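Q: What does the assembly look like in three dimensions?
Context provided by user:
Components: three
Sequences:
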Amino acid sequence: MSFTITQRPDFALVTVQLQSGQTYHSEPGAMATMSPNIELKASLKGGLMSSISRGLGGESLIISSYTSKGGEGEITFAAGQPGDALHYALDGSTDIYLQRGAYLANSEGVEITSKWQGMRGFFSGEGLILLKAHGNGDLFFNSYGAIIELDVEDDVYVDTGFIVAFESTLNYQVTTLPGARPGTNWKSLFLGGEGLVCRFSGRGKVWIQTRQIATYLNWVHRYRPVQKSN
Amino acid sequence: MEVITRDRPAFANVQVKMQAGDKIIAESDAMASMSTSIVMNTRWNGGFVGAVLRKLFGGETLFVNEFVASEDSELIITQPFPGDIECMDLNGTSLFLQPGAYLASEPGVKMGVSWAGFASWIGGEGLFRLKVSGTGKVWFGAYGGIFVKEITGPYVVDTGHLVAYEPTIQMKVGMAGGLFSSFFSKEGLVSRVSGPGRIYLQSRSIDGLATWTNRHLWR
Amino acid sequence: MQYEILARPASSVVKVSMNQGEHLTCEVGAMVAMSTRMTVETTTQKKGASGGGIMKGLKRLFAGESLFINHFTAQSDGQYIILGPTMMGDVVHHRLDNATLIVQGGSWLASDPDIEIDASFQGLGKAFFSGEGAFWVKCSGSGDLFMNSFGAIYPVEVDGDYIVDTGHIVAFEDTLNFNVQKAGASWIGSFLGGEGLVCRFQGKGIVYCQSHNPSSFGSSLGPSLKPRQS
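A: Here is the predicted structure of the complete assembly.
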């Protein structure tokens, strides 16, 4: 299997070449184009249990699976939002934690489950619900905005709305910044992460994104059609 | 008239350097900024019946703006969404554009509607499609980056990712997978295109953005 | 205070490096990541060498909401903060030298606390609002100013006159005169042609323009979104 990621970092497109008989999985709706000999199946991947655990992470219970039949095939994946995409080769030694919504696609040999951060400091909105990718194979994750890779040496605070993914070797703790508060008067319908940060320490990579969903939702709200009440 | 497409591919916009008498046509609300020596005239998009049909079925606006310069001037033309802009020099050839893709053209380019077929309507794209033909340059844009594919045989494209295609391309709307798979995979209906010819694709779709946004709108 | 603009030109963020005692004032919701020896305070107050005091007119003109801002202070040397705007687009730095720049409200990202921020500025009149939520911030004094755009930022050095569609203005120097006028030859034409009102700048000064118009984008996306209650 070979792949390319083009249109980085603003409208990233992942192109994967599949060998005959090879299967790939993705977030439903992520396929932009594909060869005609690729068969699409929506499935409860890996059986019922891992689907349910993935459901707790906010990801859909359904996964799209693509198999190239009778020859090679090509498929391109695109997220719904503008932003970046990155590949990570999992080899069993390090797992990747991903923010929900960051999951794009994976090869066979990779298992995706959900990990619940817990109620402490949990905000409605993003919170810190994570998916865990484990195994041996390829993982593609995406972002809203560009991805910046931070190789943690000194501790760093990342606002929870901007976390894409991080290596399991890192210690992480969700906390609030003293002195910061969302502001009682501020009419912010969707902002959940302000003042809520994740402190990363130890050694490992954390991928952050340069835009966050909450402020986008606040802005787009005014353009939504108004529900007509009878 | 010197035309440069700048800030590609994420926020492409067209810088037009005009001299006295130069004229360019652009879709509604496309002007970002301009010299004061340019006059903007608004007119019906090519005939009453055509304009209405285009509005109802083609998704284009009823009006276009014609910009005329009276001396050396500059005009910046843009599109509503972020993304890339392509330019095609039509020389008696024609091109089909998806709704919302048309941006601007030189006066020699004719805009018309052509029947897209019921399959296209079922696929959510409308009964008619915009066809540009004639002589001169046409600028069309995408939401996202533009990538081009020269195809000979069949190919599957999520309909929201299609921007433009040559008239030699055949288009059929079909299910992405089996009934269960198509519904749950959210691919739903796709376009099965076949060549020979060129298709212009975009790496994002407004539908995809709306779906992602709606998923997060919890109130 | 050093700065670096990353992920240009469409997913831009600015990384500001700060040494002990240095401050930065910025929009709430903009903090992406930062080193840990920084303090933050959410307030409506102004801080800086010229002393405290309420920032003028931080109540937005029509929503009645207060504009909350964050003051960041470095507690030791070698600290940094990464700031990201709401919209896709670019970030630009402008050095104010005892001058005044009028900035579109959504385009103000961060500034040196010594810069006077006045959001009560009404010089442009109500007719000038390109879309709901538009307001203008008058920035005066000396220091570093960071602005963001929806689209590519292009500065136009006006010497004479120039027309800019109202939704495409990021900021302009107050040495310019401006006049709101109809876009086309006729009023009907102006509205049908989608342009509506434009701003005609006269004199000598810089106008920072953005290649794209947020309300055009919002309006093209809006119809596909889930309806809202009010």
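Follow-up: The radius of gyration of chain B is 18 Å.
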